[in-house]
Amino acid sequence: LEGKVEVMAGDVTSLVATLAERGMKHLYIDGGQTIQAFLEAGLIDELIITRIPVLLGQGVPLFSQVGSERQLHHVGTYVSDNG
Q: What is the mean pLDDT of residues 29-50?
């Protein structure tokens, strides 16, 4: 599958277990509600938050009500060459 996986239904914990069985260790998780589900399940080890200065509409907040406070550690801030 060259790093791509077909869409799988079910809870995120089962999804991660299934992907781990297939040998996948590092996952790219995207989308406000999807990220929230992975955070709530305690399945996120590292967050890379990108701020893109383009108005995309109302959207879904990345950190809406995730249920409990999370301990995060700032690792670094980087700026792309084009600002």
A: 85
